From TrEMBL:
PANTHER family tied to this protein: BINDING PROTEIN TRANSPEPTIDASE, PUTATIVE-RELATED, PENICILLIN-BINDING PROTEIN 1B
Residue stretches making up the Glycosyl transferase family domain: 62-237
Gene Ontology terms describing biological process: cell wall organization; peptidoglycan biosynthetic process; proteolysis; regulation of cell shape
Transmembrane segments: 20-41
InterPro entries, per the entry: Beta-lactam/transpept-like, Glyco_trans_51, Glycosyltr_51/Transpeptidase, Lysozyme-like_dom_sf, PBP_transglycosylase, PCN-bd_Tpept
Compartment annotation: Cell membrane
Organism of origin: Peribacillus saganii
Full protein name: PBP1A family penicillin-binding protein
Length: 690
């Protein structure tokens, strides 16, 4: 019997030794596996934390004007910008040992397993905040073993490479709170209309309870369930000493006011403008489409909401619903190029094509200020005269000819000044100037003004027959308005990424492009379209809108068979309006031909209302003298009309007008014959007085 017992003991000992060896080997293998896993996780490094987030667009004063997203509202905020109450509530109800574990709460896992076994069903979760964050970032919510293993690996990588604060910040910015709101900022804005930093204990404890089941615990959908869940959250906070029993009770009794609205409306503010902003982000900043749409950027634009409203009101109130004509408007600050208002068409939903920046149209006579600036560089002055009469020009060594026509075939049949040619938009004068300067002169000057569109070196270029973009033309006038300094259209002031880093900030140009004195002379001549003193063989082209204007303006209209333009400015604002049909059919209706000028006048007056009335300040190198508008000579007291006109010093006229002094000899007046003086005596007296 003892022998048998000894044999059994030896056999048992053998099994024990084998078990110990196997256990030891398994432990070593587990240790090796764990070491390999940790090493592999370390080699892979930090997993990327980028998640889709809404890009938000702001107006120039910081108001939200729109956002770009994929149907999910996500706004990343730093941990410091989340209320302590919400942070404490989340930790209390989701992961009370968050700061003490390394991604896995073993005690909680064991408790969950026991509870599930007792209930013979899945009744209790054990996921930590880190595990939930890993799931939100990289995985779906399916319940396969593969997903759980992958989740565990990502959890390990997160804990090894990020601080607890970074993990908590990421979790709070990605967790789903229902109603398309991802993250605490989107949820706080949706449910309570405030930022996450401003949440009270009562509000925070409601929000902290939602992620367990957004469909079941939304206070908007199931208020009673949300309140019951709030009690659990507050009880957990009290148990963990985050709050007192009195504070918990007070929070439960606090009446909640729910908003149920996302901060940005579904309909964009200034949709054509926002399209232009996104185009600038892609083409000028080099951002890809996904970053623009879902990068969580904060884009601070140049849009002035009041001016945008004035632009849209001008369109709505002036353009008839009976007409199918299209129109566009751009308004800029000439000092820095910031685009403050933009309308790209009459209805964005019907046609998102942005005519303000995409369409290439003939500018008509709005090109003339660029031509005449070139003429000033070649020695022209406002008093330079050319003959206005029907003229046929030959070119290409006589092989081709061109005959421009004035509006309604009205010609002076005599000499007119440059100042009057601009005010009356005399086409013959323009083509003569263009041919005199050389057909390449206007092209080179246009480049100086920032015109990038290709222009054709032909006689008709002086009348704007080569297509340009509206944005280019308005910017060119902005250069005149600011006295000749380089400026470019600006839609974006600053872009901030989801981390709060400034990734782009606009720096304005300060380079001088034009001679300041010549730019002022050109501006002063452009005020002439609103001055009836320059009426001649036709009326000044601004006559129709003159009664609406209450401050000094400079500008130029332009017309082609299929385009109608008005571009003008004050020292504070430059704006252009185009009207026409998309497929370049002729503008036939009289009403359609007036829209550009009327919209421009209404917009300028309304958008500048309340701002100081500013004139154009003369530069040091110019001199203003009174001239007779019909001939450009110095005016005498006998000239029926005298207009102050500015010239570069040294180029002003020195000859006096004698036409009207001579006419005075034959005029009857109330003086007796003895009192009348011969015309030459009047002239000598006037000369001596000067």
């Amino acid at each position: 019997m003892e022998l048998i017992t000894g044999q059994n003991f030896k056999r048992t000992a053998k099994y024990i030794r084998a078990a110990v060896i196997i256990a030891g080997l398994m432990s070593i293998l587990l240790l090796l596996a764990a070491f390999s896993l940790f090493t592999y996780a370390k080699i892979l490094g930090a997993p990327p934390l980028a998640v889709p987030q809404s890009t938000i667009f702001f107006s120039e004063n910081g108001d939200v004007i729109g956002e770009s997203d994929n149907g999910q509202k996500r706004y990343w905020v730093k941990l410091d910008d989340i209320s302590k109450e919400l942070i404490d509530a989340t930790i209390a109800v989701e992961d009370q040992h968050f700061y003490n574990h390394y991604g896995f709460d073993m005690k909680r896992i064991a408790g969950a397993v026991i509870a599930d076994v007792r209930a013979m069903a899945k009744v209790q979760g054990a996921s930590t905040i880190t595990q939930q964050y890993a799931r939100n970032l990289f995985l779906g919510h399916d319940k396969t073993w593969q997903r759980k293993i992958t989740e565990a690996f990502y959890t390990l990588r997160l804990e090894m490479n990020y601080s607890k604060e970074e993990i908590l910040e990421g979790y709070l910015n990605t967790i789903y709170y229902g109603h398309r709101a991802y993250g605490v900022e989107a949820a706080s804005q949706y449910y309570f209309g405030k930022s996450a930093k401003e949440l009270t204990l009562a509000q925070a404890s409601i929000l902290a309870g939602i992620p367990k089941g957004p469909a079941n615990y939304s206070p908007l959908e199931h208020f009673d369930r949300a309140k019951n869940r709030q009690s659990i959250v507050l009880k957990s906070m009290e148990k963990q000493k985050f709050i007192t029993a009195a504070e918990a009770e007070e929070a439960k009794l606090t009446k909640l006011t729910l908003t149920g609205k996302h901060p940005s409306s579904e309909e964009k503010t200034a949709p054509y403008f926002q399209d232009a902003v996104q185009k600038a982000m892609k083409n000028e900043l080099g951002l890809d489409e996904r970053t623009i749409q879902l990068g969580g950027l904060k884009v601070y634009t140049t849009l002035n909401k009041e001016k945008q409203k004035a632009a849209e009101e001008a369109f709505d109130s002036i353009m008839s619903d009976r007409s199918e004509i299209q129109a566009a408007l751009i308004a800029m600050n000439p000092k820095n190029g910031e685009v403050e208002a933009l309308v790209g068409g009459r209805n964005y939903k019907e046609s998102p094509f942005n005519r303000a920046i995409q369409a290439v149209r003939q500018p008509g006579s709005t090109i003339k200020p660029l031509l005449y600036y070139s003429a000033l560089e070649k020695g022209f002055t406002p008093s330079t005269t050319l003959r206005s009469e029907k003229t046929t020009f030959t070119f290409d060594d006589g092989a081709s000819s061109y005959t421009p026509h004035n509006f309604n075939h009205q010609y002076a049949e005599g000499n007119i000044t440059l100042a009057q040619a601009i005010a009356l938009s005399d086409n013959v004068y323009a083509v003569k100037t263009h041919m005199f300067l050389g057909e390449d002169a206007l092209i080179e000057t246009a480049k100086k003004f920032g015109i990038a569109s290709k222009l054709s070196a032909v006689p008709s270029l002086a009348l704007g027959t080569s297509g340009v973009r509206m944005l280019e033309m308005v910017n060119a006038y902005g250069i005149l308005a600011n006295g000749g300094k380089e400026v470019e259209p600006v839609f974006i002031k600053q872009v901030v990424n989801h981390k709060g880093d400034v990734i782009y900030k606009h720096e304005p140009h300060k380079k001088r492009l034009l001679d300041a004195d010549k730019a002022y002379v050109m501006t002063q001549m452009l005020t002439g379209i609103f001055d009836k003193k320059l009426n001649g063989h036709a009326s000044v082209t601004g006559t129709a809108i003159l009664p609406q204007l209450t401050r000094p303006y400079a500008g130029k209209s332009g017309t082609t068979p299929s385009d109608s333009w008005m571009i003008g400015y004050t020292p504070q604002l430059v704006a252009g309006v185009w009207a026409g049909f998309d497929h370049s059919q002729r503008i036939e209706a009289a009403e359609d031909k007036t829209y550009a000028k009327k919209i421009w006048a209404r917009f300028m007056e309304n958008s500048l209302e309340g701002e100081p009335v500013k004139g154009f300040k003369p530069t040091e190198g110019v001199r203003g003298v009174k001239v007779d508008p019909t001939n450009g000579l110095l005016a005498t007291e006998d000239c029926p009309v005298a207009r102050t006109t500015y010239f570069e010093k040294g180029t002003e006229p020195t000859e006096y007008c004698t036409v009207h002094i001579h006419d005075g000899l034959f005029q009857n007046d109330s003086k007796t014959p003895a009192e009348k003086k011969a015309w030459y005596k009047k002239f000598l007296e006037f000369w001596d007085s000067e």
